[in-house]
Write a structure and sequence with these properties.
The protein is an alpha/beta fold and 722 residues long. It folds into 4 domains: 2-134, 3-Layer(aba) Sandwich (Rossmann fold); 161-289, PAS domain (Beta-Lactamase, 2-Layer Sandwich); 374-571, Histidine kinase-like ATPase, C-terminal domain (Heat Shock Protein 90, 2-Layer Sandwich); 601-718, Rossmann fold, CATH 3.40.50.2300. Helix content is 44%, strand content 21%. The strands form 5 sheets. Strands 8-7-13-12-11-9-10 form a 7-stranded antiparallel beta sheet. A 6-stranded mixed beta sheet has the order 1-3-2-4-5-6, with helices on both faces. A 5-stranded mixed beta sheet has the order 15-17-18-20-19, covered by helices on one side. Helix 17 (446-462) packs antiparallel against helix 18 (525-535). The longest helix is centred in the N-terminal third of the chain and has 37 residues, at 119-155. It is elongated. The protein starts with a strand and ends with a helix.
């Protein structure tokens, strides 16, 4: 092994050559060409491996044919140990096939010894290519690191951020297409990344079509186009209009900057600041901060409060609407009678709801009323039968079959308060020993027991699909009377059962993204029922075969010993409690303008049957032609065939939500009805839900409950009848 130079600033060149003469010639040629190298010559494979494995090498010049080694093997070693080092074959005998094989194996170039004048340019080219590759690799690493930092920064931002790219047609910018949205932007716009990427910014956010920028009211497109052409950043307030005849607005502080042929957009919602004075803003900011802290610690309670709002507003909206109908058409007895029935039913719903809410407070304070009475088996059977009869009305509307079976008792029941000691003894030979030892009386609070049974039956009906079955069974067991309610509904997972009786906990709804769907309820009924059963010294047990296999809830009430029954019977009289309600109504003083909406076709999408019927009657009373459906799927189908002039859409739907439905419609072409005005009708009245509705493509957001004149006025405005 020979080293020609020792200058550490020169290229470190490893020369694999067994001929001293050829090696000196190669060194001389490169030196004359002013290619400064520090040469190390080796002849054997072991020397070659030793050098490239331990020293820095910038260039390898290898003879193809050596006595104990060859250039092709050297190339393979290089590819294993230092693949980035360029290797040039220098050989006196190198046919075309060998040259091609060497290049495929990883050689940078090859020079025949008869043309050594080409060696210096080949070396310079190889070194230059190596440097370019290193620079490219470094740039790629820097770019990847930069992109990683960018995504880390944007995904942790609290402000929404979007990257949009100009879409051109024959060189002319026609639109802006979304390339990226951070998490904050997806949350603000109620969009999933997958559904927004590669879509027009106006298709993803229809409200941007009517966006005015600054005092000039110029379109958002013109402003973004100006940023793209001039390169000057944009920082202005954007006013997102719901509809030209409606005053509702969303104001955002938009920032836009050019990035090659793209724009980076970021914004903040300034609506509250736009509407309130500076002191009010600070108060709201403090309230928001406190609310955010409470939300992190009390997720279930927050969901509960939002659901309570929905559950309260829906029946209130129905009651208010039917009252308005009766006032406007007092002579229509059919409407008056229907109003009485609907108002009574929804009043009961509200009463039960409010009572449950009060019970939660009473339980937390330890003040829940509990007045136990002596009940016989027959009386308990009547209580259960009455509860089944009451729920049958709701079950029939879902085509559910409810059956009730009470286990029969012997002719002279043991432990009956009418039986005397002698009669009991005289019948012992006719009864099994275990029956004789049992009593058929319990101590129970009638009202609270009815509450538990009603709640379990309501849940069974609520979570059992159409044409399902609910079986109720009453029977005497050892030291207890049990009431079981078995359904063919959605069932429960094994992991869900331990949480079932926790306050505010609800079975997760994986069928839709909207967490305020009505069938979920308040999440307090089972916890109240569990507490009531503890007061009775009884229990509630639940069993399920799994998801989709139904559930069985069983309550057990401890029976009294036979000796205690006569004593308690002499001190207590068992009665029934019957609620009676008088329902009144007001008569309307004015006449309906039945021609105001004549010729207007209205499509109402509302899953609450009473509300749907009410809205239809309201609008039809003013001359509108109304179609009503109860789901988003049926709504889209009816939209295509009915071709309405205006939509009235409930945000909370059983199979989707109003946001997704209106985005579907706005994505269509103009002749397919994409510009039909739409009203978002919902019990979710908070500001953030109004913002979501307008951004999704609704013209106006109307919170429930809504009156007759209000809904007619909004429809008239949007259809330009006023």
């Amino acid at each position: 092994m020979n080293r020609v130079s020792n200058d550490s600033n020169q290229l470190r060149c490893l020369l694999l050559e067994d001929s001293t003469t050829d090696a000196e010639l190669i060194v001389a040629i490169l030196t004359n060409a002013q290619v400064s190298c520090d040469f190390t010559r080796v002849e054997t494979e072991s020397e070659f491996r030793s050098i490239i494995g331990s020293e820095r090498i910038d260039l390898i010049l290898a003879d193809y044919s050596l006595p104990t080694f060859d250039g092709l093997s050297a190339i393979r070693i290089i590819q294993d140990i230092c693949p980035d080092v360029p290797c040039i074959l220098v050989s006196g005998i190198l046919g075309e096939e060998r040259a091609v094989e060497a290049l495929k194996a990883g050689a940078t170039d090859y020079i025949v010894k008869q043309r050594l004048e080409l060696l210096a340019p080949a070396v310079e080219r190889a070194i230059r290519e190596k440097q370019e590759k290193q620079a490219l690799r470094l740039a790629t690493l820097e770019r990847e690191e930069s992109e990683k930092s960018f995504y880390t920064l944007t995904e942790t931002m609290t402000d929404p951020l979007a990257v949009v790219v100009a879409q051109r047609d024959e060189g002319v910018v026609k639109d802006f297409v979304i390339r990226y949205l951070n998490k904050a932007a997806c949350s603000y716009l109620s969009l999933h990344v997958e559904e927004a990427i590669s879509k027009s910014i106006y298709a993803a956010v229809p409200a941007f079509k009517r966006a005015g920028v600054g005092d000039s009211g110029n379109s958002l497109f013109s402003k973004l186009f100006g940023v793209l052409v001039s390169g000057r950043p944009l920082a202005q307030e954007i006013v997102l209009q719901g509809h030209e005849s409606i005053t509702q607005q969303v104001v955002i502080d938009l920032r836009a900057a050019k990035l090659k042929d793209s724009l980076v957009l970021t914004w903040r919602d300034m609506t509250e600041r736009y509407q309130l004075d500076e002191q009010r803003q600070q108060l709201l900011a403090d309230a928001d901060a406190a609310r955010n802290e409470a939300e992190q610690a009390n997720r279930f309670k927050d969901d509960f409060l939002a659901t309570v709002s929905h559950e309260l507003r829906s029946p209130l909206s129905v009651i208010r609407g039917w009252v308005a109908l009766v006032e406007s058409q007092p002579e229509e007895m059919g409407i008056v009678q229907s109003a009485f029935k609907v108002i009574e039913k929804n009043t009961v719903v509200l009463e039960n709801l409010i009572e449950d809410l009060l019970d939660v407070s009473r339980i937390m304070e330890g003040k829940l009323s509990f007045t136990p009475e002596l009940l016989s088996y027959d009386q308990l059977e009547q209580i259960v039968a009455q509860a089944v009869d009451a729920i049958n009305i709701v079950a029939s509307s879902k085509q559910l079959h409810i059956s009730f079976q009470a286990q029969p008792l012997p002719t002279q029941a043991v432990g009956s308060i009418l039986s005397e000691e002698k009669s009991i003894e005289s019948n012992t030979d006719k009864l099994p020993p275990q029956v004789y030892a049992l009593s058929t009386h319990i101590m129970a609070d009638v009202v609270r027991l009815q509450q538990v049974i009603r709640n379990l039956l309501s849940n069974a009906v609520k979570f059992t699909p159409a044409n399902g079955q609910v079986e109720v069974c009453l029977k005497v067991e050892e030291s207890a009377i049990s009431i079981s309610i078995k359904d063919t509904g959605r069932g429960l997972k094994e992991t869900e059962i331990p949480h079932l009786f926790k306050r505010f906990w609800q079975v997760p709804d994986t069928s839709a993204e909207n967490k305020y769907r009505r069938e979920k309820g308040l999440g307090i009924g089972l916890s109240i029922s569990h507490y009531i059963m503890e007061l009775h010294q009884g229990s509630i047990q639940v069993a399920s075969g799994g998801s989709g296999k139904g559930s069985t809830f069983t309550i057990q009430l401890p029976t009294l010993s036979c000796e205690l029954v006569p004593v308690l019977a002499s001190k207590d009289a068992v009665g029934s409690q019957i609620d009676s309600r008088n329902i009144g109504s007001r008569r309307a003083s004015g006449e309906i303008e039945d021609s105001l909406l004549r010729g207007i076709k209205v499509l109402v999408i509302e899953d609450y049957p009473d509300a749907l019927e009410m809205y239809k009657l309201m609008l039809e009373a003013y001359g509108a032609e109304v179609r009503g459906v109860a789901s988003a799927e049926r709504g889209l189908a009816t939209f295509e065939t009915f071709k309405p002039d205006i939509l009235v859409v409930d945000i909370i739907l059983p199979d989707s939500d109003g946001y997704a439905l209106i985005r579907n419609i706005r994505a269509r072409r103009a002749h397919q009805g994409s510009d039909v005005p739409a009203i978002a009708l919902t019990a979710l009245a908070e500001h953030q839900y109004r913002t979501k509705a307008l951004l999704a493509g609704f013209q106006v957001h109307v919170p429930k409950p809504i009156g007759l004149q209000e809904i007619v006025d909004v429809v008239a405005q949007l259809t330009k009848r006023r």
